[in-house]
Amino acid sequence: MDYYIVIPIHNEEAYLESTLNSILGQTLPPKKVILVNDNSTDSTDSIINSFTSKHTIFQKLNIISSTQHMPGSKVINAFNEGFNLLDVSFDFIVKLDADIILPNNYFEIISTHFRNEPKLGICGGFIYEKNSTGKWIINHPMDKDHVRGAFKAYSSTCFKGIGGLKNAMGWDTVDELLAKFNGFLIQTDPNLKIKHLRPTGKAYNKNAKRLQGKAMYSMRYGFLITCIASIKMATKNKSIKSFWNNIAGFMTAALKNDSYLVNKEEGKFIRQLRWKNIKKKIYA
Q: Residue-wise over 47-71: b if at least 16 C-beta within 10 A, else e?
């Protein structure tokens, strides 16, 4: 199967080379990899140049956006800029972070999953991070059927069906909800272990703490589901502050009458799906 990769990159000099080498080592190589250098101020640009000069699958795109690393808007803006350089001749498209190491057979297995299940829309593995003793352990705070935003692969039909990626916090949740709304399946493969070189969220701006609640508003969760989801998140993070930040973000967005990421029909589907999952866990 043919696939493209787009990698948004901002000040990744410590990790980028490892990521790109893991792409070069794939048993099923991509047709093209777009390296979107988003306003980097370190040696990221020279690292990109060293790879593009030696390997034709890599193509560089320089863009200038905000220097702040805010989850959602900055990274998806960079992704979309890179995606615009590609044609539509692909079986699946991959949004990849610049601080991970993939198993050598990662995309060969991903392609097998897409080939075996025509309704499969989004596919990926699981993130592993080093703990204090240097051991690689799984870090998957969401449900096990959720594909992390660091390495999402979308079938061409699914990507088109969901209208691409939303330029906002919550993009890597709403994409899966819209995929399900459009009849696509989500699959994770526990045998695909991705090494994450930088702990999740370490590079994010401190002003991003309330954006999760805003994202829940934008996905039309409603207040009650937002409260339940925030309690779950606070419990996993062992931080009551994250609960109040979520609620504050939700209420601020509601009072400002912010725009939604989904329409009313999609929002109704999302709430029904959330309630179904909540009840399933309660009565499990």
A: bbeebbeeeebbebbeeebeeebeb
